[in-house]
Amino acid sequence: MTLPVAGQEAATPATLEKISDVVIRFAGDSGDGMQLTGSQFTNTSALLGNDLSTLPDFPAEIRAPTGTLAGVSGFQVRIADHDIHTPGDVPDVLIAMNPAALKANIADLKEGGVVIANTDEFNVRNFKKAGIETDPLEDGSLAGFRVYKADFTTMTRRTLEDTDLDTRSKDRCKNLFALGMVYWLFSRSIDTTVEWLKVKFKRKPEIAAANIKVLKAGWNFCDITQLFQVRYEVEKATLEPGVYRNIHGNSALAIGLVAASRRSGLPIFLGAYPITPASDVLHELASYKEFGVTTFQAEDEIAAVCASIGASYGGALGVTCSSGPGIALKAEAMNLALMVELPLVVCDIQRGGPSTGLPTKTEQSDLLQVMFGRNGDSPVPVLSASTPADCFDVAMEAVRIATTYMVPVVLLSDGYIANGSEPWRIPEVESLPDLRVQFHEDAENFQPYARNEETLGRPWALPGTPGLEHRVGGLEKEEGSGNISYDPDNHELMTHLRSDKVKRVAREIPDLEVHGSPDGGKLLILGWGSTLGAITGAVNDLREQGHDVSRAHMRYLNPFPSNVGEVLSRFETVLMPEMNLGQLSLLLRAEYLKDIKSYTKVQGKPFAKSELVAKALEHLG
Amino acid sequence: MTLPVAGQEAATPATLEKISDVVIRFAGDSGDGMQLTGSQFTNTSALLGNDLSTLPDFPAEIRAPTGTLAGVSGFQVRIADHDIHTPGDVPDVLIAMNPAALKANIADLKEGGVVIANTDEFNVRNFKKAGIETDPLEDGSLAGFRVYKADFTTMTRRTLEDTDLDTRSKDRCKNLFALGMVYWLFSRSIDTTVEWLKVKFKRKPEIAAANIKVLKAGWNFCDITQLFQVRYEVEKATLEPGVYRNIHGNSALAIGLVAASRRSGLPIFLGAYPITPASDVLHELASYKEFGVTTFQAEDEIAAVCASIGASYGGALGVTCSSGPGIALKAEAMNLALMVELPLVVCDIQRGGPSTGLPTKTEQSDLLQVMFGRNGDSPVPVLSASTPADCFDVAMEAVRIATTYMVPVVLLSDGYIANGSEPWRIPEVESLPDLRVQFHEDAENFQPYARNEETLGRPWALPGTPGLEHRVGGLEKEEGSGNISYDPDNHELMTHLRSDKVKRVAREIPDLEVHGSPDGGKLLILGWGSTLGAITGAVNDLREQGHDVSRAHMRYLNPFPSNVGEVLSRFETVLMPEMNLGQLSLLLRAEYLKDIKSYTKVQGKPFAKSELVAKALEHLG
Amino acid sequence: MTATETLELTKKDFQSDQEVRWCPGCGDYAILSAVQATLPELGLPKEKFVVVSGIGCSSRFPYYMNTYGFHSIHGRAPAVATGLKMTRPDLQVWVVTGDGDALSIGGNHFIHMLRRNVGLKVMLFNNRIYGLTKGQYSPTSEIGKRTKSTPLGSLDAPFNPLSVALGTGATFVARSVDIFQPHLKSVLKRAAAHEGTAFIEILQNCNIFNDKAFSGVTDKAARSENALYVEDGKPLIYGKENRRGIRRGPAGLEVVELPEGADESEIIVWDEAVRSPSAAFELAQLQAPEFPVPLGVLRAVDRPVYEQQVIGQIREREEAKKDASLESLLNSGDTWEVS
Amino acid sequence: MTATETLELTKKDFQSDQEVRWCPGCGDYAILSAVQATLPELGLPKEKFVVVSGIGCSSRFPYYMNTYGFHSIHGRAPAVATGLKMTRPDLQVWVVTGDGDALSIGGNHFIHMLRRNVGLKVMLFNNRIYGLTKGQYSPTSEIGKRTKSTPLGSLDAPFNPLSVALGTGATFVARSVDIFQPHLKSVLKRAAAHEGTAFIEILQNCNIFNDKAFSGVTDKAARSENALYVEDGKPLIYGKENRRGIRRGPAGLEVVELPEGADESEIIVWDEAVRSPSAAFELAQLQAPEFPVPLGVLRAVDRPVYEQQVIGQIREREEAKKDASLESLLNSGDTWEVS
Ligand SMILES: Cc1ncc(C[n+]2csc(CCOP(=O)(O)OP(=O)(O)O)c2C)c(N)n1
Ligand SMILES: Cc1ncc(C[n+]2csc(CCOP(=O)(O)OP(=O)(O)O)c2C)c(N)n1
Ligand code: SF4
Ligand code: SF4
Ligand SMILES: [Mg+2]
Ligand SMILES: [Mg+2]
User: Fold this and answer.
1) What's the CATH architecture for A514-620?
2) Of residues A64, A279, A300, nearest to D133 (C-beta)
3) Which of A91, A412, C29, D202 could form a disulfide with A25 if both were Cys (CB 3.0 to 4.6 A apart)?
4) B493 touches chain A (CB under 8 A)
């Protein structure tokens, strides 16, 4: 969007202007409720039918000292009347609840963009905390932007003058004042948020009432003062018909697992140990007990995955979920699952590494870890989700592969996908894949390591079944009988079988699809995971400008779809942007001996569309 | 060697024949003392000045039921009057202490080879245990071999008739009878073993005396009965001048670490948890306390590596040692060492995987694990030893890199190297590299993450130093100050610095050397680790036959020496034999986009020279 | 299954076709035999038994049992078994572990299993040594032990497995000896009947690397002198001709001599079911030679069983939300329609 | 260092330049303050202190101390600190950990550190919750706790950290409270003076995710009612106007009312140094509301200190083999010469 320049002084009634796309960033102290504010704006917009994409960004500390840069929490949302793929490179509008929030975010703001600042917080004490010398609202440093000021705090207190709340509680409502203003500016109704507040504070009606009052006050403030000369409207997007909801990546993942459970008939067992940004999968699944879900908060990640393996052994759908450091701890046990050939789904919600790294930031740097981070030759299928809603489908697919091939499967997501959200067209239950499994029950000639000819999977024979008593374990097994075997040829055979089993998955997964020039051309931007949005945006822009650029996105990272080599050969140059030092690029180079150009960004944050456009242009010469 | 065919009956005095090379395999029950017997023969031969190479092979069970195939323990030794590189593809002589030992090993024996069997054990009971129907010594199944029989047990008992030992203790001496026979056959003196027995059983002189008596009896038995018509002699090898000893891989590793400690002035701290085949490094270092070595048998592998990191933090040389499953558990902590940038040496004595796998068998399948088995982008230098004696040099080199670059370094060995032995020319102490390190002590402008311009290493500043108080940890650090930093650009900078630091190692390591046709040619056999011997042997043979084959062996697996790409480009075909599914091949392909031909063997045992020759010939067309 | 069927099970039914591969003379044989003799008497069909183990000589156990078996990885058997039992409460799950497996690498899972009170039967084969890796000292080895990794003697004070278990809040804590077959069997039966985690330390001789580690209680003479058979409701009396007893003195437990006709009223009468673990803890401290070695069930109390509670929550919730459907889940939260 | 120099150290010297980033109101501030006030009084120069932590809110501690500090990984601080102390006995090493860090993921290292008796000072900040990951239940959370991961209430019985520690054979076991500053400081000083592992459970309020978890002993009223200050050589008397005491009854410890002038002879006089851990274990079982909450040093006994023993073995050996040289090592075993 480009907001028309408008003087702040004029008080003529605001004109309504239609725009197709806007990026708004709410920024304030961790205690200011920015995540909530952003989510409410998102939900309201979603219900209005906009397409949207969100990007929350919060500090690693629970609550860093108020007013400091370290304590700034942000929430970016982009809404549009058309299909969009990212939360936007640069915000058009910045809501700054205090000087630190302004300082931390102003560099990102679009030239000529709008700043809405809570002047109450712009005082010397806070300047000091934020490490600012002079008042940025006054010293001319915001010259290139359009700055709107309001005393959120004062207004909020004034609005709540006649309530019994103490000042602290009153002040906690000030984000609603800001939200009210933004609703007004973008011509949205406050109703959804009002309803939500009523439910959320059901047991504290006075808090609900206060919040609603302040929300309205914010809205009215704009309406009366005509602070803004123009109001904007972003119309519904023309999405595919259907019922939609806004969904976060971790929610979609959790729901996808429940769906897989229902479609397979297997109860879910999630063994997990809390870790950012994966904990919400545990939290969410813990609330789905009515679907027969068992969640087990284990003593550590090792116990978590081991318990899941135990559950799979007993006939449940064993799942474990963590982030990088926790996945490292699971390596030995993942190998056990691989050796006993039981289904297991291991979700890795990647974050900034190595070591403790940047726990609240995003990265794609666990790919090689999940591919290779186990002793011996130990291949496992690896899938990756590329958007929040995509987590649903990928979760079901991971379960399908795990149970079909009797193998642990890794599902990669990342912090950006996990905490981001987008509208999701809710599928019809009947349209979901049928994942029913057959346990082995026939005692005649039972061989625990006999194999399905197609999948090379072994039979899933549950304890409790008469006549199938058998032993499994981590020592090398004799093909067929499953007895311990030290035979050299058997070890070679089994090593190849474990590898071939994973390769077999390629037989039935879809080909890699090329968008743009499917028959090949100058440049292919190849991606995986959460870079999808930025790549799609960049390629669309470049093609509109007439460039010969295509894109393809990989969901299956092991094995690769059968046509990948062929696709790569069709393009002069293949550019691969990754939020790591070039991990998938390494695997593709090794496999296809194609000189993939790796484009890396390791900053704990996603690629901007503009960065990709610029890099692509370099390669287009 | 080819032993001349000779009838067993004739009793003419034996003739002495010089041979240049022989492979002998001792095989018996786990309780039969085959490892000891083989080691004694090895030592005696070493002291005689033969070149030699050994390959022990024992079951995973402590003591499987006697007489069974599972309980067979073997020890192969090759002695030669010239430079050799492997323990030999096929034995010339097999000593079989019982039917199971015969059955388990006969398939390997060279056509026309010699079998020396303990007839006492060839009875129906033992045939049953070994799963044999008829007496192989009688049923003609050994037709292609020359079989010599003796009643070891009876002879041993008879020899010890007038001692006070109980029958069980007497029977325990029967391996010495066999050893005596073999000494006779190969014209070796029993003296070294006699001395050794006296020392070993210092506190039990009656046992020493009994063993010596039986040893002599075995020797005399041959001398008197003229069981063998020919005696053989293998002369001294012409080795480089110097003082030699026979050394096992794990010993060389332990001694190399002590040498590094002495040359660096840093006390060693080894944190370890027992695991086959790495435990001996712990055992050996535990016996070197006089060198200021601290060994810590931790509660698990995680504690082991963490304690080593703590020791490095305090200024010791932190080392940890394990095998595949244990290394998997150390991943998270290795990443911590990487992030706090402290020296650490992680030794991985590889075994058959995945999971518990084949604990007593060898494999090279942990390469990708140690390269990538950690969350985030987390490069570490990786070195590999290629022979038992080489472990000494590689250990010193690992310490040098770790302390120079302030980085965890992985040293790869494997079960074959660890338990195998070869003559080692003992270096002069003064010729060993100078590894002295400088701790940082200057408090002025101290920055814990300031960097050495050459190595990019940070200062090693020890607790206890006044004025250098600082904090380290696993969260991302600000370059210079080392304070926690969530800054995106800093994270990118540090990620690249950690990677560049490892790349810098390439600046000062030797180029990859090509043996054969350094200027390039038809076929290069490229190897790493314990395949060295087999490759060297194969290439020597092939070149003698006039083939254009060269070889090169990689000690540095990360980073690669600077000239590797160039070397690869000089050869039409590069063949890479690995005891895994092609792990280094994958890395080289990705880096150099060269179509390396991977030749894999995953049988828990080394390549035979003949296998390599055959495969090379395929490629030579 | 019918009662008749199960009655027909014999020891043989629990012997697998795999060759037993422990060293001749190893105490593990006796334990295997006791377990194989006990399981047929429990009234459960064979397929309902699962044996889960870690890594170690002892952990080879499942291969020799003709039941379901899972030879997992070092130290993790309690975790694997917990996941299994939580989802399959119908199975009777036995955990086999060693002193290294349970108390060294697996210490954390061991203590958490006990505090949770998962319905598992746990046999810790304590031979005070690492057997499988050929003889390093273990967390139960006595101080000063010379092994391959401690040529000058070990320095770490050992754990008392019973104390550790009691410190975590374990609900069933017992001790027996490999070769005390009738005693071992009776303790196994008690464990089988216990609903929460039933923990048994079994003193086991490793004749190869730590022979006679428990001769202080297993030798013929020592046995009658030093074995204190703890039984619920019975006084703590032991020794030749029951001539000694344990009473509480001012400074803790004391041994008293009990000549014929002596007054036994001071002797502690054992109560395995007291709520506080303190008495059992105190008794567990007793060690030879000063004191006898307590054997038998030291503690057996009822506490909610983990998997029952977990499943209870799920069932309750399923009941309360009977109409929960996948469809309703997919459509939960705010939705909108595009047409 | 000279005594004069150290005498000049003040609390300020121990404050680093890093902004303290706990939530306003968090109990961690009080503990930080107590530690910063205590260390200057120990007579050691600043550079001799090292603070090693794991991961958690509490584990941010080292950043705020102007000493050497190591913020390691989750649960592993005891192991890192063990390696450090074994090689650098000259340093005073403090370990900071949380209830999740020490007792969940780090449980194994925690118990092994205690049994070995490594010379570390260990502060476990027990807030009965996972703070840093935003509020899941921890191994010390009470049953039924509703958290993000247990929306229907937790089911796992909690550990009693003191019991766990005593079960492992710990030599110094104490408890204090974040905001009981003088008490906390005195316990810290005792810990500093202890030679083996000094373990202190510090009850710590997490006002964001588990506010008032310890109000049963920290609230003004509760404090005088329920805090039992255990002191060596003093009777176990507590409550308003010291009107209550603890004595041993037939079924274990009992509370007795002590009206003015009552006979106090039955009241247990605490002895922190008895060899058996049983008495301390029994006392550690006491819980509010039925019983008071024991605070202070429950157990302090001398046992050989791990790193001293380890170093002793090395020094002895160095002494015995004075002529050990690298050359002799390289040339050990059978050698031969080729010329
Ligand atoms: C991760 C890992 N670390 C180490 C080992 C090696 N290991 C196997 S068993 C064992 C200890 C066995 O001791 P214990 O548990 O007492 O059993 P025992 O053999 O004495 O019955 C060790 C260290 C392993 N298999 N896996
Ligand atoms: C290997 C690993 N697993 C999980 C985490 C996530 N994590 C960080 S702190 C923590 C628990 C913190 O609880 P506690 O130890 O009680 O400390 P508190 O924050 O309450 O002080 C967890 C689960 C992690 N950092 N590393
Ligand atoms: S090593 Fe010891 S414990 Fe293992 S099988 Fe042999 S005797 Fe038994
Ligand atoms: S979350 Fe709790 S423990 Fe963590 S800093 Fe905040 S108040 Fe303290
Ligand atoms: Mg053991
Ligand atoms: Mg906590």
Assistant:
1) 3-Layer(aba) Sandwich (3.40)
2) A279
3) A91
4) no
